[in-house]
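Title: Prediction job returns without error message
Component: structure pipeline
Severity: low
Priority: P3
Assignee: unassigned

Description:
Job completed but the reporter wants confirmation the result is attached to the right record. Sequence as submitted:
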Amino acid sequence: MKKKQSISVKGVKFFQKQLDLLKAEQERSPLPASSLALYILMHHKCDDLGRIKGKEFSLSDFQQSGIPYTTLHTGKMVLLERGLIREVIINDLPSFEIVGYKELNSPEHRIEGEKLSYFRIPYELLTKPLLKCLVSAREAAGILLVLDLFNRFTRFIGKNQAEAMQASFTYTMKSLQDKTKKTALKIRHIINLIRDFFSFEACDYKERRPNKERVAVTKKNVIQIVIKKFKVCINPDLLLIEEDEHATKTLEAAFRKELTVKLENAGISYHSKELRDMLTAVKQEVINVMQFSTQQTFKERKHFIRNVFSSALDSLIDYYQLKSMENSNFTFGNIGSFMRKSLRSSMQSLVVVELDPGDRIEIASGYYERYQKYPVVFSN
């Protein structure tokens, strides 16, 4: 299959409706920069339902951003008070949830015909000082401007892959002032704070000389540079150039979401690491094997992979429900290992039914050439 190259902002989802909500809240009653910063940072730690398990939600983890613990705590209290996040009990365990995230990220909760509308905010927000600087300067408007910029660049790059690396936009000083409700001097200050993420190049400016008829001429009279327009570019280091050889990234994301939803609905508790282990098992046991199928179309290969995944997950849930009837305190010792065994069992059943002998030989040969061993499903 032909490699599919894509360029995107390397980061996590931030939904358009969330940005609209933050702006509405800001208009109603200004939010402190600390609460906006924490709200953004939580998106880097939450699962596909917008939740962070209570025992995994530590404000000290967000101090990578450089924002002090006490400042983050203040931001957390405001977010709770304003209903932007809330504490929920899931399977008898407390979690913190970004309100509305689950509905926005779940097709079954969206209004019919409504598109999934989100942009990307980069991973570097966790470790770079941008948010710290804006919080220290109490620039909530600056944080909202950053979200607006990522929104605009994400959408442009998604639709214009050929121009992605040269993407730029023009903003007038007046439009920036209207957007942030800040003076030109404050705008320049914000631009300086976010320069590691966005470059602002003055492309229309003029000199303003002192009016000799209105002010006394002294050595301190200076010529001012009045900038009317900026060319804005995103730091190319924030962009991800990815070759998805077998076009499975979307499928893997769908599996992660399905695991999150179905395990919760079944009342199965798990840690973030265990979820990663299950997804790794899907990648290694199914996707990495099926990439060598040459006799299937992409649609057929995708259908087969999904069948294996669904069968394995159903088996895991059925086993849990059966054991829970025998012992209400039953838990998996290693849910990642159980998922791997279920995937292997599902593969062994389906390859015989859905793949012809020639394709099975091609898969086994291709896998051996790449990994110097045969896939488990063909080695028994």
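Comment from assignee: result matches the submitted record. The beta strands are 4-9, 11-15, 51-53, 85-90, 93-98, 118-122, 168-172, 198-208, 224-234, 239-244.
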